[in-house]
Design goal:
The structure is a single chain. With about 90 residues, the chain is mainly alpha-helical. Helix content is about 55%, strand content about 5%. Strands 1-2 form a two-stranded parallel ribbon. The termini are far apart. The model has no long low-confidence stretch (mean pLDDT about 90).
Length: about 90
């Protein structure tokens, strides 16, 4: 079995049969696969500013503390959940 160590070594296939025959005789190198896994980078997030009523922010922080969470992380979780709900409704 031949090991593929470079993505450029994988040809373009005319059909699935040709691709299946190729992979019967070839395998991907583990380092090549490991290098293709996306590692999220904290720099991929964007900082924004939101203005809150001080009482609302205090209540949010109180809820977060009671759940042993950072209030910003909890708010991001809430927003992500709501976004999923909204997308499901569409």
């Amino acid at each position: 079995m031949k090991t593929i160590t470079n993505w450029d070594d994988i040809p373009d296939f005319d059909d699935e049969k040709d691709e299946a025959e190729f992979w019967l005789e070839h395998e991907l190198d583990g380092r090549l696969m490991a290098g293709s896994i996306h590692q999220p980078d904290s720099r991929e997030s964007t900082t924004i500013t939101l203005r809150f009523d001080p009482r609302m922010l205090s209540r949010i922080k109180r809820i977060a503390r009671s759940r042993f969470l950072n209030y910003q992380s909890m708010m991001k979780q809430w927003l992500a959940e709501r976004l999923e709900d909204e997308l499901r409704k569409q």
